[in-house]
Design a protein that fits this description.
The chain is an alpha/beta fold. The protein is built from 14 helices and 25 strands. A hairpin with a 6-residue loop joins strand 5 and strand 6. Helix 3 crosses helix 7. The N terminus is likely disordered.
Length: 579
């Protein structure tokens, strides 16, 4: 945080003036006498409105004076303000404060890779966030029962002070580091899938927002590096989202994008990130210079650690990915520590550093939406967050002595992606959860027991919620011409994308649902029964998900329940030494 332009007075950092009131659980602004004299008649200046932005560097425009004080309603129930004294025996920290504190720890991954701050309820932070309108992004409404997929993109663009000397100073900003963060439906676990930048893949056609606000239609490109899905030919993060969906079959809800400054500023704001190296390191390219042992890195050294390609392993990008995963895991553990959770200065600094580094889609383009997302992630235990890398092989089309790119290792990648699409955790599932899943499966199987309606009596609307383009129409043709379901209709694209195909029906449509499930090869888990009867003329709703390939291909195959042998992975609670 730049204290000089954001309310600093008499060389006092405003971050130091936020004090935790143990009776209310709220942070309160308490300025010294000299500051109070300058800010009469009120101690805390009003909150900046949603439309007010901080001064742009170099414009000469004055910054908004003062620091926002506690908002009305942030105190305990009953309308009492956080700054008032309370009787002994009053309530402890508010649920909201606890939620924000826990959020700060759980979101460390997004804080570093995607630059989201845990301490986000200050309205002025909205002005720091850069929003890119992205076709295909979700609305930003989250609810249990539906998985969340966030694409975290770190670019190699050399923007920002001190970054000009790193590599290609003219880079347009490619997808240098890309991680697909999958949060399970029940919010008990998450998988962070790193995608190698040098992977050869197809980039679909996309609509891309340009820096001047115009929209460019970028044509598809086959057999090229994954990292060119961003920056090259004017592609924006929405193009990278489309590429990831095309590559993995996993629908991407939102993206978060940052540059080099995010790593430098966030590692500094948290007070440094603990790392371990097994040997002395002196990498002239990344400027990483460390003795063997443990270190706490921040700023330029933290950036050097996540950028180095020559310090560890066989000096490849794949080894750099593992180093980045170790760093991110350590950041998460640091954020979970008591020292961070109880430090208002760290929270305040993190919020500023994070939001200033952040570009997002319109679905999560504000503090309210980001806080909602934080609430979905706050209870995930670090031991149930797994980092892994999309399995690849050296490109067989390249000479043995000039290996520069990689291709998918289908034997490992296919079951891994099936697990993520099927919402299967890469960590051990607790016995209680396994028992609950078994009970749920028994109930689901019972849905498939019973009579079937004749094909001519099946009435259904077909939506495409993630299948290949035109799937709703091809499925309609298949049902009508091949199966005799002449009361089906094509309703186009679904309002919300879904990972798995699902059939919604009323209790009095159970016979129709079972008949259609047989035709489509749907499992019991794909059948969603409502509570009220629908009547004779109301159609069922069939939504084709990302697992849908083509009409006639059964969808009953269950996702693997165990990670393939040889899969590289590490849990976020494990401290690993780079070697």
């Amino acid at each position: 945080m730049d204290a000089q332009s954001r309310g600093r007075a008499d060389e006092i950092d405003p971050a130091d003036q936020w004090v935790l009131n143990p009776r209310t659980g709220n942070y309160e602004l308490r300025l010294g006498d000299s500051v109070a004299q300058q800010q009469k008649p009120s101690v805390a200046t009003p909150r900046r409105s949603r439309t007010t932005r901080p001064a742009s560097p170099g414009t000469g425009a004055p910054a908004t004076p003062g620091v926002p004080g506690p908002r009305r309603g942030d105190g305990p129930p009953g309308g009492r303000r956080g700054g008032r004294s309370r009787k002994a025996g009053g309530r402890g920290p508010s649920k909201r404060k606890k939620r924000l504190a826990i959020t700060g720890g759980t979101l460390a991954f997004l804080l570093l890779g995607g630059s989201l701050a845990g301490y986000l309820y200050y309205q002025h932070l909205n002005g720091n966030i850069n929003v890119i309108n992205t076709p295909g992004a979700s609305s930003g409404t989250f609810s249990k029962g539906r998985a969340i997929n966030i694409l975290v993109i770190g670019t190699d663009k050399r923007s920002g002070a001190g970054n000009e000397g790193y590599g290609d100073s003219g880079s347009v900003g490619h997808a240098d580091t890309t991680i697909l963060f999958h949060v399970s439906k029940d919010r008990s676990n998450a998988t962070a899938l790193s995608i190698p930048r040098d992977l050869i893949t197809d980039i679909p056609a996309c609509s891309s927002q340009q820096s001047d606000g115009s929209v460019k239609q970028v044509p598809a490109e086959k057999g090229t590096r994954f990292n060119t899905s961003l920056g090259q030919s004017g592609r924006d993060p929405g193009c990278t989202m489309s590429t990831v969906k095309n590559l993995t079959g996993i629908p991407v809800d939102h993206f978060m994008m940052v540059d080099f400054n995010a790593v430098k500023n966030l590692s500094t704001a948290v007070g440094g990130v603990p790392v371990c190296v097994e040997k002395d390191v002196n990498d002239k390219d990344s400027k990483l210079n460390l003795k063997a042992g443990e270190h706490r890195l921040q700023g330029e050294q933290a950036l050097a650690f996540v950028r180095t390609r020559h310090a560890f392993g066989n000096e490849s990008d794949l080894d750099r990915i593992q180093t980045q995963q170790q760093f991110l895991s350590s950041m998460m553990r640091e954020m979970k520590s008591k020292e961070t959770l109880t430090s208002p200065k760290k929270f305040f600094s993190l919020a500023e550093a994070a939001t200033k580094s952040l570009s997002v889609d319109q679905g999560i383009g504000g503090i309210k939406q980001l806080t909602s997302l934080a609430g979905e992630l706050k209870d995930i235990d670090l031991k149930n967050i797994t980092f892994t890398t999309l399995p690849v092989l050296d490109n067989p089309a390249e000479p043995a002595n000039r290996k520069a790119t990689v291709v998918l290792n289908d034997s490992l990648a296919k079951p891994l992606l099936e697990m993520i699409r099927g919402d299967v955790s890469l960590t051990e599932v607790k016995a209680a959860k396994a028992a609950a899943e078994k009970e749920a499966k028994t109930k689901e199987d019972a849905q498939l027991q019973g009579a079937r309606s004749p094909a001519g009596d099946v009435r259904v609307d077909v939506f495409n919620g993630g299948g290949p383009s035109g799937s709703a129409q091809t499925t309609l043709n298949w049902l009508q011409n091949g199966k005799g379901v002449n009361k089906a209709a094509n309703r186009g694209n679904a309002p919300v994308k879904v990972a798995t195909t699902q059939l919604e029906y009323a209790p009095d449509q159970a016979d129709q649902a079972r008949a259609l499930a047989d035709m489509m090869g749907l499992s019991a888990s794909a059948l969603k029964v409502g509570t009220a009867n629908a009547g004779d003329k109301t159609p069922m709703k069939l939504t084709l998900g990302s697992d849908f390939k083509e009409a006639g291909t059964p969808l009953t195959a269950a996702a693997p329940q165990k990670a393939p042998e040889g899969l590289q992975r590490v849990e976020a609670d494990k401290a690993v030494c780079a070697k």
